[in-house]
Each structure stands twice: as structure tokens, then as C-alpha cells.
Amino acid sequence: MIVAPAWLTELASKAGDHPVPAGLRPPPDGTGRRAAVLMLFGDGLEGPDILLIQRSSKGRVHAGQPAFPGGGVDPQDDGPIAAALREAEEETGLEPGGVEVVGMLPELYLGHSDNRVTPVLAWWHTPCAVHAASPDEVETVERIPIAELVDPANRLRLRVRGTALSVAFRVRGLLVWGFTAMVLDGVLGAAGFEVPWDRSRIEDLPAEIVELAARG
Hints:
By secondary structure, this protein is an alpha+beta fold. The protein contains five helices and twelve strands. Residues 31-169 form the Nudix hydrolase domain.
């Protein structure tokens, strides 16, 4: 019998206990496109890791940004779980049969693209080779060790649009910020992985990233 690690199943069981940050609360009127992302954890060479993609810099929305695999829930999808697995397969070549879904986090709202996003928590019990299977949408695919994400040397806050501060991670040549960083920050803390880091380390969002983000 395939069993996900206790920290992940416990995280899934308590998903509803953590309040949704004000900036990510879905509109009460139900507007927004339904979407889902796959938060796929696995057991890598350096301990637990998570699958991330870097979106194509040629895209219109969220161009060049590191993200979880995912996308819109299509009519033929049987809900967010099916959508997250389908999108991950299309974007990375992931084999869904090697994945055990353990739960879902509360729906979050991504105002920039008007998406109501359901993060799907899953365990990669039988890893397979992954790659940028949809080059028009994805530039790179990475398995990022949790140890690197929580390393204080890789953590910072970004000054966005002059004043707003956002948590961020600088790992494997990627600057993970925005929605993806906020969700990762919350999940890593809830799972007990987070270690103290210097929150006074603040940098401006690089100009080239600001330019890409402005496309949407």
C-alpha cells in the first residue's frame, strides 16, 4: 500500500484550519475562472522536494514566472484534482499513475488573472522523468529540495510596485515570488519545515520581471 509521509497527510487534514490571507480571498460573488495547481512533493536525493515550472517568457499572463503546474478547470475535468493532474501531465510529462493525491487547500484568488485557484496536495510515490513538455507554455521544470527553500540564505522579501512587500525564494537560478511564493511560505510553515530567516532582507522586484508581469 502506497502511503504519503505523515507530515503531508497531517497538512492535508488541517488544510481548513488555516485562514486564507486577505489578498488571496476569493470574491464573495463567485466571479473568477476555476483553476487548479498541483503541489507535488516527492522524496529526492536531498530529502523532500517539490515540483515547480518556469512559465514561458513569451506568454501573456504570468510570463517567465516560476509556478506550480496547473491551469484552468475545463468542462471535461472532474473537478480541480483532475484538472491539476491533466495540466501537470501536459506541461511536464508527469505520469499521473505515479501520484497519490492527499487533499486540497482552500480556494485562493489570483486577481491578476481572475482565477479562483485550488491547490491540490499530492505525493510523488513513483517519480518519472519530467521536462518542459509544452514549450509554448513552459521553459523549464525543476524539482526543488525543501531544504533549499527554507535555507535562510535563499529567503527574502520583495518590494513590489514601490511599497507592497512579498515573500520570495531564490533557488536554482529561479526567483520564486508572488502567488507561488505566498502559497509555498504558508505550506512550509504549516508543515513545520520553516526555520527563522531575516525578514529585513528586502530587495526591489527586478525591472525585467516587472516588465514581464506587466503584460497581463
